Amino acid sequence: MGRYVNTHLIKDESVVFETKYHWVIFLTLRSLFTLTIAPMLQRALSEFVITNRRIIIKTGFIARSTFEMNLSKIESVNVDQSVAGRIFNFGSITIIGTGGTRETFHNISKPLSFRKAFQELC
């Protein structure tokens, strides 16, 4: 479990599911130009976690972006996968909250397991 999530868990909250960026992020021009350092940092410093109370997603290090939403405020978690995504088990997840909040995260490892963990809690 990531360091950010560990320090931001509330009382009686526990991690149910955790994933990270898929290794496919190493097959980009950005990876080539930065000698794979940028994707290595991106993968190591990002956290995609479902707890028994909320979804927590943290990306970035210096310019950090966080997304936290209570499970009761989430209407659905949608998964989009290409053919390669289905073969190698990666894809995009879109979290739709009440009031029209919509956040999309690309190249996530095990997106169907992420959605299943969310559905089992609701």
In short:
With 122 residues, the protein is an alpha+beta fold. Helix content is 30%, strand content 37%.
What does this structure look like?
The chain has 122 residues and is an alpha+beta fold. The chain has a single domain, classed as PH-domain like. The strands form 2 sheets. It has a 4-stranded antiparallel sheet. The chain has a 3-stranded antiparallel sheet with strand order 5-6-7. A hairpin with a 4-residue loop joins strand 6 and strand 7. The longest helix is centred in the last third of the chain and has 11 residues. It starts with a helix and ends with a helix.
Question: What characteristics describe this protein?
Answer:
four-stranded antiparallel β-sheet; 122 residues; three-stranded antiparallel β-sheet; globular; PH-domain like
Tell me the layout of helices and strands.
Elements: H1 3-8, E1 15-19, H2 29-33, H3 37-44, E2 47-51, E3 54-59, E4 65-70, E5 74-80, H4 83-88, E6 90-97, E7 102-109, H5 111-121
Antiparallel strand pairs: 1-2, 2-3, 3-4, 5-6, 6-7
Biggest sheet: strands side by side, in what order?
1-2-3-4
User: Measured on Cα atoms, how large is the radius of gyration?
Assistant: 15 Å
| Average predicted local confidence, pLDDT | 95
* CATH C-level label: Mainly Beta
Q: How is the quaternary structure best described?
A: single chain
Order of helices and strands: HEHHEEEEHEEH
Structural class: alpha+beta
The CATH superfamily is Pleckstrin-homology domain (PH domain)/Phosphotyrosine-binding domain (PTB)
Distance between the termini: 22 Å
What's the β-strand tally?
7
Number of domains: 1
CATH architecture classification: Roll
CATH topology: PH-domain like
Largest sheet: 4 strands, antiparallel
Number of helices: 5
Work out the strand percent. 35-45%
Any idea what the shape is?
globular
**What fraction, in percent, of the residue positions are helical?**
25-40%
Q: Any low-confidence stretches, pLDDT <50, length ≥5?
A: none
